[in-house]
Amino acid sequence: MFIGEYQHILDPKGRVIMPSKFRDGLGDKFVVTKGLDHCLFVYPQNEWQELERKLRTLPLTSKDARAFTRFFFAGATECELDKQGRILIPANLREYAELTKELVIIGVASRVEIWSKEKWDDYNDDANLDHQSIVEKMAELGI
Question: Model pTM?
């Protein structure tokens, strides 16, 4: 399970150090793809394969299913850590997530998310992020 929030810096070559607490859970190779809310999702191989299996069951006749599958898979890339514990984030993914220098890397149960610090701060400061409303909705879902 991935938990926690870590501040990191993107180097000029597009590399970032993956928090050491996430490295074992991610394994030797993992997948980075476009996430929702303009962040990047990072999946260990087993989680990626499970997600892939679920997406394959979506009906090909559904326009929304095709669009979501394209969005998710077209931007995906397999990554591995270098000897310093860094990953290279491809330019297209850096552009999508608006990653420049300061990053926030968070654990979200079965995946890791990479955010630009500015986007993360905006997300957390958003007036629409009403914690009481979220709690009530989660209670309706039985959580």
Answer: 0.90
Residue range(s) defining the domain that contains residue 114: 5-140
**CATH number of the domain that residue 55 is part of:** 3.40.1550.20
Work out how many domains the chain is built from and give that number: 1
Contacts of 113 (CB under 8 A, 6+ apart): 35, 39, 40, 41, 42, 105, 106
Q: What is the pLDDT of residue 14?
A: 97
In what helix (H) or strand (E) does residue 118 lie, and over which residues does it extend? helix 117-125
- Beta-carbon neighbour count of residue 136 at 10 Å? 10
φ, ψ of residue 106 to 5 degrees: the values are -125, 150
What are the Cα distances from residue 63, in Å, to 1, 76, 139? 33, 20, 32
CA distance 43 to 32: 6
Residue 126 structure tokens? 């958003």
